Amino acid sequence: MYRTHNCGELRMQHVGQEVKLSGWVQTSRDFGGMTFLDLRDRYGITQLVFNMEDDAALCEKARKLGREFVISATGLVRERSAKNPNRPTGDIEIQVTKLDVLNASKVPPFTIEDDTDGGDDLRMKYRYLDLRRTPVQKNVIFRSQVGIETRKYLAGEGFLEIETPNLIKSTPEGARDFVVPSRLNPGQFYALPQSPQTFKQILMVAGMDKYFQIVKCFRDEDLRADRQPEFTQIDCEMAFVTREDILNTFEGLTKHLFKTVLGTELPDFPRMSYDEAMTRYGSDKPDTRFGMEFCELNDVAQGKGFGVFDSAELVVGICAAGQADNYSNKDLNELTEWMKRPQIGAKGLVWVKVNADGTFKSTVGKFYSDEDLNVWVKKFNASPGDLLLILSGEAEKTRKQLNELRLEMGRRMGLMKPGEFKPLWVVNFPLLEWDEDSQRFFAMHHPFTSPLPEDAEKMMSGDHETLKNLRANAYDLVINGVEIGGGSIRIHDRALQEKNFKLLGFTQEQAENQFGFLLGAFEYGAPPHGGIAFGFDRLCAVMRGQTSIRDFIAFPKNNMGRDMMIDAPSAIDDVQLNELFLKVQTEKIKM
Ligand code: ASP
Rounded to whole angstroms, how far apart are CA atoms 409 and 541? Predict the structure, then answer.
């Protein structure tokens, strides 16, 4: 009725056939005797031709069509005299004999082409128009493919897809909950899941053995760039597994996705301990597309009279290969200022240029002889023409700052190559993080994560220092410096889980209140189990070499957590408030 073909499929072999296409008018070009229209649908664009000489009335009708009108056109496929090699259908065009206007369109508020003139908020308000643009549409299609391949792979591995509820009770993953008032239970609230963590563990207790779900998660976090209050995880859990089983299964999934959707073969993923990642890169999600690894200088830079280094817990630097000549004093001052911005907070930056003739130029020449600096050069494995950039201070902070500098230099030097993928597993994270301000421990992953088997004993009886150094049986998948997923082997023993809650500052009563159901389940034959969750939006973005997850979500929220299209969140009327027993509370807020 509407079409014999789509707008992306006609080729030379169809020349001479009568076809019918339907779609949206992308552009129209009028050359007096002839009118050309580009007709677009999800599959592509096909050129339509109307000829004054053949049918003046039809040509007139075509000229009146505006952008984004929806039409059907019947006609003959013919070879184009001026071919368009950039378009798969560029060899042919349709000589139209019949035209139906299916729907008119107002003039769209921005151009619906690859490069648009629409700003972010405008495009979000008219998301249905933005989604018609090829780059956005490609991302959504890509995401669909990744989802379908995920299901295929995991089903092939014997996983069951099981849904878990959205109206639940708080699960601590370190963020605030979104809450939903319960009309039937006045004054009580559901929480939206930050993840299905406890449910998937319960499914293991229930004997489901291998679970997955592509699932929405909700976290009411302060909005940083590229955070979405609702996002999607590929969430998984397995029973009777060790860490190796999980890493192998999900390395397999990742390789499958890259292979089937991108045609890219990934090599085996290296493993790196958290401690090693921090020492070599100052980050638990190192971008290993390039080297520029940290080089510690305490033993060679201290004790030479340079007070800043002498008093520092850590002196550490990176070697920017071949950059000595690319950075003038002014550039280096600018780089130093960049490092001193509050976002990074470095106190200063020491630099050394290794000149081609073996001499040096540096900010610390007063304190270090050429002989001293030659020792540094050896440590860095540096060559003439290289630029050494060095920071010092408290170890943890300094590493974080140098990580920022390394990434910035990597960007500037073009070392983050598009199309190159460097995955790795980071393992053995700390179990607990001590927070000085609140004087308490937080779970680095979440409270259900088990310690490494060899650390379990220490967890039950260790002193403060021992507890700080406990390692978790937790792991992250990192690709190109982006955390794609994380998980852990869980605690499946009630006593150990209770101990962990206690270390995290829960009273017995609080633990029982919030997690009694899980602790209870652990008393009925909980198998050893573990799992992982991938950030689905982020995985898609990284696979396509993009940075914004928003571009992979059909209906994303803006930086204020607003859906611009439906205008949410919004006020609700008094009747609704009353029903939910909320009226009094919101009035209080207004005052
Ligand atoms: N629930 C965890 C998360 O959302 C993932 C996991 O431990 O499986 O990060």
Answer: 23
